[in-house]
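Q: I'm writing up a methods section and want to include an example of the input and output format. Could you take the sequence below and give the corresponding predicted structure tokens, formatted cleanly so I can copy it straight into the document?
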Amino acid sequence: MKHKILLTGAAGCLGRAVRRVAGDEIAFVCLDIAAKGDPAVQEGSFTDAALLDRLLPGCDAVIHTAGLHGGNRLTHTPTQFTEVNVMGLVTLLEAAKKHGAKRFVFSSTMEVLIGVDWDASGMAVVDERTEPNPDWIYPVNKLSGEQIGLHYHRHQGMEFVALRYMWFDDAMGQTPLLLSRFILPDDVARANLLAATRPGLGYEVLNIGPETPLTNKDIVKAMTDPYAVVEKYWPGAAQVLRDREIALETRHFWPVTRIERAKQILGWQPENTFAAYLQSLGWRP
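A: Here is the clean output for your methods example:
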């Protein structure tokens, strides 16, 4: 049976990637505050309950990528952030419950753990057990959203999967940042699609980031000799990078998140890796 999914933020970076990766496998009901000339997208807000009553009937899931984020930091107040990201989330969850959409995929952020400057947890390797340390209103909103999802799971039977993303950007291709902090939008999209369609999920919070073997010791070593760290895992790669005049920086090596739970729970694996980036430069294992 073909899934029918309400996709918020459908005209944004992640929404476009979700639609691109899914192809014709899923019927999307697309919603965005700015359709950007896309005739497949209904222009409007996920905070509009009446609009949701028109769009949600027949949907079995919601992929919720919309909301205020870091790009709105200087243009919106904490009150506005919270009205949209928290109160709007409740409006959307209530509508999903009303119309029988049982699965809800929530776009969270790794800033819940690592903060706006990505140093709240220090130069460390983190995972889902790491204590949250949000340091501005956006990750505070997202942490609240994860807890709201837990409430709807426990008391309303909603299947709720929160995905905490590392940095992604459709304007960038492969980059040394794939070592720790960057992931390509198509890989984030695949995680969303699996979270929306994989059977047997209840409530999950999963970190979504690049595939990396880096340890805390590697992070420290990279402060003085980053090429030695790369050479440790990808022998011969250091010379390839030097030949291409690609400079490695400390920021390429942290923060690191483990992604084993996303692999286990979703069966997800990022396809765009640092090793693939090296191979595109001419490195061979």
